[in-house]
Amino acid sequence: MALLKWTKKYSVGVKILDEQHAEFVKCLNQLHAAMMKGDAQSVAREIEPQMMNLTINHFSTEERLMDETIFPGLAEHRAEHLVLAAKVEEFVARYKQGDQSMYPELLRFVGNWLHNHTLTVDKQYTKWLNEHGVR
Q1: CA angle at residue 73 from 69 to 76, to 5 degrees?
Q2: What residues have CB less than 8 Å from 121, skipping those under 6 apart?
Q3: Neighbours of 116 (CB within 10 A)
Q4: Is-contact 70 129, C-beta < 8 A?
Q5: Can you give the residue ranges of every domain in the chain?
Q6: Which fold, 15-129?
Q7: Does residue 4 contact residue 111 with C-beta atoms inside 8 Å?
Q8: pLDDT score at 96
Q9: Cβ atoms within 10 Å of 103's Cβ, excluding its own
């Protein structure tokens, strides 16, 4: 059973960002499924670099689009990204040290972040970006 299901309610109205958010959900669900089978460590070896690249690319894409359209909330959004990036780096460090107890925390954190951040913070730029031709 999926931990989080991508639905239209998570859409931010920008195709590339929606695709990236959906990819996050996919990775999260793969890790959750592996954890439920007791195989999180081996799956994480494949998913961890993918999630890191996704995170970097996603933040870069969001910030670039906001910068190009002179979105007034860019500084605040960037600050949110810095907090999340620091937390993700903490999880990666724990993973590299072999700390398997971090998986449930990681799943909870990323799931909550995807749900809450996408539905609240990311939705703040939807109208702005769309009005500035970004779809």
Answers
A1: 135
A2: 77, 80
A3: 11
A4: no
A5: 15-129
A6: Four Helix Bundle (Hemerythrin (Met), subunit A) (1.20.120)
A7: yes
A8: 82
A9: 20
Place of tokens 């870069």: 60
Whether the predicted pLDDT of 37 surpasses 90: no
On whether the CB atoms of residues 110 and 28 are closer than 8 A, the answer is yes
Give the CB-side neighbour count of residue 21, counting CA atoms within 13 A: 27
- Pairwise CA distance, residues 71 & 134, whole Å: 12
88-101 pLDDT per residue, tens = 888 888 888 888 78
For the whole prediction, is pTM greater than 0.70?
Answer: yes
86 touches 113 (CB < 8 A): no
CA distance 67 to 7: 27
Q: Which helix (H) or strand (E) holds 74?
A: helix 74-96
Residue 6 is encoded by which pair of tokens? 């991508």
Residue 36 is encoded by which pair of tokens?
């439920």
Q: Tell me how far apart the alpha carbons of residues 55 and 95 are, in angstroms, rounded to a whole number.
A: 17
